[in-house]
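Colleagues,

Please find the record for the two-part complex below.
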Amino acid sequence: MGRDAKYRGTFGLSPQPVAGITLYQDRRVGEPSIEDMLEELEKFEIRDARKEELLAKVRERVANIGGTKKEGKVPSTNPKRYLVDPETGKIDVDEEEGDYTYKDALLVSASIKGKGGQIDDIITVLNVAKTLTQESVPKVTEKPKEYYVELETGIIVHDPENGEYTLSEARAVSQSMQKGTAENKPIRIKVIDADGAIREAPPGEPIVIKKETQTPGKTFIVKDTPDGIVAEEHDLGRPIIINQPAPTSNMPPMLPYPVIGADGQPVYDNDGKPVYANLEPMMKYMGFQADQRRADERHGALMGLAKAVRENLGDGISALKVAAEETRKGVGAKPSSQPQAYLCGDCQTQFGIPETEKEWTTVTCPSCGRVYTREEIFG
Amino acid sequence: MTSFMGRSAKHFFTIKAAREIRNEIEKAGLDNLKILAEAGTSIVGTYLQGCSNEQKAQYRRDLDALLQMGVTADMILDEMARQMPVLSPIMEGRESYKQSEIEQLKRFLAEG
């Protein structure tokens, strides 16, 4: 199957070989494509050595691309009028000693900044390289230099008469200045000290925050002494000993009982003062014994009462027996009225009152003969 | 119309109650009861009067349960007379003695 010789269509570049013809642009067989390298770079697990290798390849490729693009173009002004600081990646313009074109400078600057391990910057570099490898590179047209950049602030100023850069150049320079100043500018930390004053923290030195300890006030202990209430200052760190009063009892703490010797006289000490004995422990012991005795007696009384109640509990059978016994005894039996006996106050003899139908007035004691009237007998 | 089981239970409890009373009578002595009956003293009243409150409450519960089952005091006394034939002349010796004892029991139940 032969090819049509009259074909007039446009040619397109393919990353893969077509019909045995190698049409790779800036690429040898076996090398990975830029897309592959981008994918590989996007992986965070990529090793640094591999990164460097890829970056080197990218730079080489970019340099080749730059060389091919420059061929056949004779710009009116020096297109390589840009310098890139190899350390900071800052872009400067030098008409005579410039090394890079504007895009090359951008690439190199981005690659230098990307060495810091920022993968985003690397990806930016690669994206730029990718755009450069494509055929859709815009044509560079020289634009009027109507802008300049203020060196101190990096602000782009539009000045058609005294401008030094085109707008894109001015932007690049401004960005590089701002980035450089931002990186080189030390971070200023302001600290509010204990007095409320705002001051700048010294660079490179740690900020020490001192916690202000409050000095505690003095502690006084009020003591009730025989001389009155006394307040004493207490030293911090020393324990406060509280003398707890003895449990209150009805008895005084000490019973001043004078000690009597064998001769019946009070005992005196060497100073001639009488000796007193403390009987409180003995009194407490005796009180304890009395309490115990009372408790035992109460317990015994309760037990006896319970026994009596248990013995005297109601029982129907015994009630029947008692009732039958009473009935048996009560049949025909009439209780005889016993005469009331009285005791004689003189001879202690008992005597009775005569049972007569006639009302008596006096009674005579049969033993001593004392006569008692009716009023005396019945009160 | 009660069932066969109901009638059997009623009969059984009547016999059981009469046996309990017979045990008490034997403890008290038949002669004593005879003396009380001849003197006209209520045996039931005397017996209940001698009981403690706990015993009274227990007897009251038991008698109430028997009445709810349809066992009356008359039935129990008849059963007692059947179990102790010597009681019959005592209970029948005085007129209306048996009836007064039944009234005594009813009053006792009404008190609770």
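DSSP finds seven helices and no strands in chain B.

Comments are welcome before we finalize the supplementary table.
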